[in-house]
């Protein structure tokens, strides 16, 4: 056996033989209440969200969350092709976490309802600690089914989704962590919007999307602890590369900084860059007849820059017993489209969006 | 061809036997002498392990940031109260970087047993801690009799039984 | 060729079990993980907040997935 394969077997052997299994801990009990507001590009979506998590016995933790979106939509699509409307979306998630020695198994279901779109999914995630707790390996699978409807026509079609996730988180030093995540998503069925129109030779035609889509994303990130004592801080960097069978390629990069100010205050700041290349069949104004055509700006070439900050105040903390926090988070995102024009001005479309979250968290 | 297959079969058998040997070998193992150490207690004075000879000792390694450690504390408190008059001593060795956190949490949890501060992790390294929390049971002659790694609900009953057995000796 | 590959795989597994070499031990001991246990060292600290933020992005961007947020999205438009 040559030198490199011997070294490789040493590594594998070490991983297998190292240390006793640690017991994994369940997520702690908590309750969260949030009011969220999104405003940008003519769309306002706001509403409350709630989350409750409680552990039973020593091995099981149950969680439930409710999310409401009240949407007032006067976006560029809506304004140029129809008239503004209001809509409401409810989402309920229920989950169970089960701790088995050094593995955590999570089963959850999610159900979302709008007047013309319902989506349901079931997920299973397994998280396993290996190598003396230095490495955590996670596997996840999601199966989703959507029913697509159109106002006045009822439910007309459906869509199915499969998601496969794999991730590894590794402790590098007493101060640094790194993780790599991979996710493959496959969709089958009606993948567009029954209301959206595409533009071919200047005329509006209903969009035609492929009935299948397969995508991959890989994300690398690292987080490190800097500073000491009451001015402890952490920095984080993330990068994700995405590609799919619709020829979309996207890069996402995010940098974050969190810092404690004394005992009670915690502040975060982050910046996020996103850039995307348009889908194969996307066109602002198609000048040829193609099997698929879409003018969905979500599939166009664009970039976005987001700048955000978050402030948390801790009220009454007893280490490990309970903690109540009040939080405020604000993000400003600027979208700039390269090949989607604003038909009102005939220049490339751009808009800014504000994302505001006000929420209270209690863990006990 | 057959020669190679027999060769690999023998290797696999040898591996199966060797696997048991590669797991868990350390200086701190049952039936060996417990390594001696001296640490400052939270109250101020130093405490040396060797001075506890003649008593049954339970050393519990814990930290304020470790969930299962905190879960275990009320049970350790109870065991200490129950057996301290019979020649039992419980030493809580804290491994926090900042001893003020240890003092804070120890007060909040109402710990009655001596809490020793191992801020520079010398004793943790000496005892080759592989899990948090870890509990080491030492008999009256200073020999290690049991090592418990991690905390699972119900293990305090095992501690109870083992302390009783050691006190009877 | 296949026989050689199978033999290599078996001997890889076997040699690793034998531990006949200096196997890497976890180099960050459990008692050295205090900083890593701090909430600011988590990639995702507030579940609800991160779920909402992720939803806002997925609905407006073509890319999706690998965020480390457990569970599926709503897949809605």
Known CATH architecture of chain A = Beta Barrel
Classified in CATH, the superfamily of chain B is Glutaredoxin
Strand order across the largest sheet of chain A: 1-2-3-4-5-6-7-8-9-12-13-14-15-16-17-18
**Tally of separate helices of chain A:** 2
Structural class of chain B: alpha/beta
Ends apart, CA distance between termini of chain A = 55 Å
Task: Specify the biggest β-sheet of chain A.
Answer: 16 strands, antiparallel, barrel
CATH class of chain B: Alpha Beta
Work out the helix count of chain B. Answer: 5
CATH fold group of chain B: Glutaredoxin
Largest interface (CB within 8 Å) is between:
A-C, 101 and 54 residues
Kindly estimate the percentage of residues of chain A that lie in beta strands according to DSSP. Answer: over 45%
- Fraction in beta strands of chain B: 15-25%
Summarize the structure.
The complex is a heterotrimer of chains A (about 375), B (about 170) and C (about 80). Helices cover about 5% and strands about 70% of the residues of chain A.
What does this molecule look like?
The complex is a heterotrimer of chains A (about 375), B (about 170) and C (about 80). Chain A is mainly beta and about 375 residues long. In chain A, about 5% of the residues lie in helices and about 70% in strands. In chain A, the strands form two sheets. Chain A has a 16-stranded antiparallel β-barrel with strand order 1-2-3-4-5-6-7-8-9-12-13-14-15-16-17-18. In chain A, strand 6 and strand 7 form a beta hairpin. Chain B is about 40% helix and about 20% strand. Chain B has a seven-stranded mixed beta sheet. Chain C is mainly α and about 80 residues long. Chain C is built from two helices and no strands. The longest helix of chain C has 17 residues, at about 1-20. The radius of gyration of chain C is 22 Å and the shape is flat. The mean pLDDT of chain C is about 80. The interface between A and C is large, with 101 and 54 residues.
């Amino acid at each position: 056996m040559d030198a490199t394969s011997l070294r490789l077997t040493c590594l594998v052997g070490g991983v297998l033989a190292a240390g006793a299994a640690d017991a994994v801990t369940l997520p702690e009990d908590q309750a969260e209440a949030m009011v969220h507001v999104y405003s940008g590009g003519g769309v306002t979506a706001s509403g409350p969200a709630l989350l409750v998590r409680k552990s039973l016995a020593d091995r099981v933790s149950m969680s439930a969350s409710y999310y409401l979106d009240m949407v007032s939509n006067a976006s560029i699509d809506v304004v140029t092709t129809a008239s503004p409307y209001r809509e409401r979306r409810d989402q309920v998630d229920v989950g169970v976490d089960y701790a088995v020695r050094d593995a955590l198994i999570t089963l959850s279901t999610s159900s979302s309802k709008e007047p013309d779109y319902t989506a349901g999914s079931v997920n299973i995630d397994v998280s396993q600690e290996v190598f003396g707790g230095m490495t955590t390996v996670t596997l996840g699978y999601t199966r989703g089914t959507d029913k697509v409807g159109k106002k006045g026509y009822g439910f007309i079609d459906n869509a199915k989704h499969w998601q496969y996730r794999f991730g590894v988180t590794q402790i590098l030093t007493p101060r640094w962590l790194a993780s790599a995540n991979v996710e493959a998503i496959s969709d089958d069925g009606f993948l567009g919007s029954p209301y959206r129109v595409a533009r071919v030779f200047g005329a509006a035609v209903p969009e035609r999307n492929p009935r299948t889509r397969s995508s991959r994303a890989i994300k690398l990130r690292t987080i490190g602890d800097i500073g000491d004592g009451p001015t402890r801080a952490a920095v984080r960097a993330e990068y994700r590369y995405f590609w799919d069978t619709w020829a979309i390629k996207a890069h996402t990069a995010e940098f974050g900084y969190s810092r404690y100010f004394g005992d009670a205050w915690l502040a975060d700041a982050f910046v996020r860059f996103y850039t995307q290349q348009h889908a194969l069949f996307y066109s602002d104004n198609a000048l040829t007849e193609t099997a698929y055509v879409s003018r969905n700006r979500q599939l166009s070439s664009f970039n976005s820059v987001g700048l955000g900050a978050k402030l948390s105040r801790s009220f009454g903390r007893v280490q490990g017993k309970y903690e109540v926090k009040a939080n405020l988070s604000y993000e400003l995102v600027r979208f700039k489209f390269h090949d989607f024009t604003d038909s009102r001005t005939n220049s490339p479309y751009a808009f800014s969006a504000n994302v505001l979250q006000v929420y209270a968290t209690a863990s006990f | 061809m057959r020669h190679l297959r027999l060769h690999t079969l023998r290797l696999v058998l040898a591996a199966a036997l060797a696997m048991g040997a590669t797991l868990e070998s350390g200086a701190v193992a049952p039936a060996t002498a417990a390594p001696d150490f001296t640490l400052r207690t939270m109250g101020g004075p130093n405490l040396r392990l060797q001075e506890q000879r003649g008593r049954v000792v339970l050393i519990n390694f814990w930290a304020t940031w470790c969930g299962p450690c905190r879960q275990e504390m009320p049970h350790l408190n109870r065991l200490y109260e129950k057996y301290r008059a019979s020649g039992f001593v419980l030493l809580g060795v804290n491994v926090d970087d900042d001893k003020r956190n240890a003092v804070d949490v120890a007060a909040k949890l109402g710990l009655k047993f001596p809490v020793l501060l191992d801020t520079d992790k010398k004793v943790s390294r000496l005892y080759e801690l592989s899990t948090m929390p870890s509990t080491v049971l030492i008999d009256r002659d200073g020999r290690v009799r049991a090592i418990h790694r991690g905390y699972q609900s119900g293990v305090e009953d095992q501690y109870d039984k083992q302390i009783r057995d050691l006190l009877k000796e | 060729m296949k026989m050689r590959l199978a033999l290599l795989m078996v001997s890889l597994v076997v040699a690793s079990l034998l531990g006949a070499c200096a196997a890497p031990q976890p180099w960050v001991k459990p008692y050295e993980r205090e900083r890593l246990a701090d909430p600011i060292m988590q990639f995702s600290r507030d579940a609800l907040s991160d779920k909402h933020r992720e939803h806002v992005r997925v609905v407006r961007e073509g890319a999706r997935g690998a965020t480390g947020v457990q569970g599926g999205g709503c897949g809605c438009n």
